[in-house]
Amino acid sequence: MSGLASLNFKYKPKGLPMYQALYQQIRDQILGGYLPPGARLPSSRNLAAEMACSRGSVERAYELLAAEGFITATGAAGTCVNPELDQQLIASGVAGASTDKLSKPTDPIMETSTRPLQLGVPALDAFPRKLWNRLINRNARSLSADQLGSNSPFGYPPLRQAIANYLAISRGVVCEPHQIFITSGFQGALTVIAQTLGQPGEQVWCEDPGYFRARNCFQQLGFSIEPVPVDQDGMCISEGIKKAPTAKFAMVTPTHQSPLGVTLSLKRRMELLQWAESSGSWIIEDDYDSEFRYGGKPLPALKSLDGHNRVIYTGSFSKVLIPSLKLGYIVVPNELQASFEQSFSSLWAVGSLLDQKVVTEFMVNGHFSLHIKKMRKLYGERRAALANSLEKQLPDELSISLQAGGMHLIGELLNTTNEKLLLQKARELGIEPHPLSKFQINAQQPPALLLSFTNVEVASAESVVEKLAQAILASQ
Ligand SMILES: Cc1ncc(COP(=O)(O)O)c(C=O)c1O
């Protein structure tokens, strides 16, 4: 580890809280390569004395930087720039998003009618709604007359920059902001990708079981769906090659397969990339909830291995923030930039500018990483509580499998049940389990329920499982 780093601070911009100024300047110095991986940072006490600010401001700045993976605490040795930060990434200069003023994060306050166990909805009770509302108000007030009248069809430039920064640090995807296009959620992304690169009638590999909305989208656009089985190593690439060797697209959820939760093995990742390269096909990587992993290191995206530029990466803010935003993005290879610019200009599929500005401020000011970190902890607790209650109350009815990541558990139904009746009874009782069958095309897994833990508070896990037990028993 190198010696104590010397920090080079500019004056604090007027109106910016001290911790925010510190956070931004340290971050920029890391990304600019001035603070190399392993460089030791001053203690919070010393830096506070040097900057004539409170120790709390330094601690808060360090907390934000640690949440984003820029720095790590190394016990007695103090705080240092994350030694595992990729030098290449730093040298690529992905830094540079500008920042605005920021409000203090507040306690979560949101009341919600989302039903316990409902799939795909993040913990709405823990969303920092006060802060969010403040950002909406401030950004709405600051919209210029020009901004009221127009909106870049490719996305708000500072948001494209903020996403590039985030992907480089968190997902191992190094790209330029011009490769990123903002979309109206994942559905919006798929529509533009299909229309830019494909033709109706062409084949699409879809995971089986797999996310039904994705295949619905391709189906509605006139593509031919080719179900490809999924096993414990993810999509079976050799099966896809056997069935549809010249398919135009392969749609995959490599980090955390939707809905089985398995990870696409490295061998399969390489097979998939090789196939796409040799057949001139495109891989659509759906990285929808990779932020939530409860053991081991987060896995880098498939895109990070894409030496031949065959992967179109898609991300969504639906799981990490809120689904009602319907905001997502794609990352396209450089050589496709012009084609996508043309499509986005004619389709104008971008999301609302106000929402984009709010998300930008949330990201750039460090709230995004902190929110993900908090949700990861909360979901870890809720996941454990739900699994314990299920194992305690329903040991003879459900066999629970815990995946390393994601937002739901899978409970295999051990006895014969009438699925329709079970779901109807559950709804009457105010809970919303989801059947695995809805994701299957030809796949023949045993009957199972997908049970989301994100909106089941630890204290209510027992009562939610009691209702589930009633629904299961009533359907046998
Ligand atoms: C597998 C999968 N991909 C992507 C998404 C995100 O979709 P959208 O951005 O349209 O909300 C979801 C949301 O539930 C999902 O389950």
Indicate the topology.
Layout: H1 18-31, E1 40-41, H2 44-51, H3 55-67, E2 71-73, E3 79-81, H4 87-91, H5 129-141, H6 145-149, H7 157-170, E4 180-183, H8 185-197, E5 203-208, H9 212-220, E6 224-231, E7 234-235, H10 237-243, E8 249-252, H11 266-279, E9 282-286, E10 311-316, E11 328-331, H12 337-347, H13 353-364, H14 367-393, E12 398-401, E13 408-413, H15 419-428, E14 434-435, E15 448-452, H16 461-474
Helix pairs in contact: 1-3, 2-3, 5-13, 7-13, 8-9, 8-12, 14-16, 15-16
Provide structural commentary:
The protein has 476 residues and is of the alpha/beta class. It has 3 domains: 18-86, Arc Repressor Mutant, subunit A, CATH 1.10.10; 132-369, Aspartate Aminotransferase, domain 2 (3-Layer(aba) Sandwich); 376-474, Aspartate Aminotransferase, domain 1 (Alpha-Beta Complex), CATH 3.90.1150. Helices cover 40% and strands 13% of the residues. It contains 16 helices and 15 strands. The chain has an 8-stranded mixed sheet with strand order 4-11-10-9-8-5-6-7, sandwiched between helices. It has a 4-stranded antiparallel sheet with strand order 12-13-15-14, covered by helices on one side. Helix 14 (367-393) packs across helix 16. Bound molecules: pyridoxal-5'-phosphate. Pyridoxal-5'-phosphate binds next to helix 8.
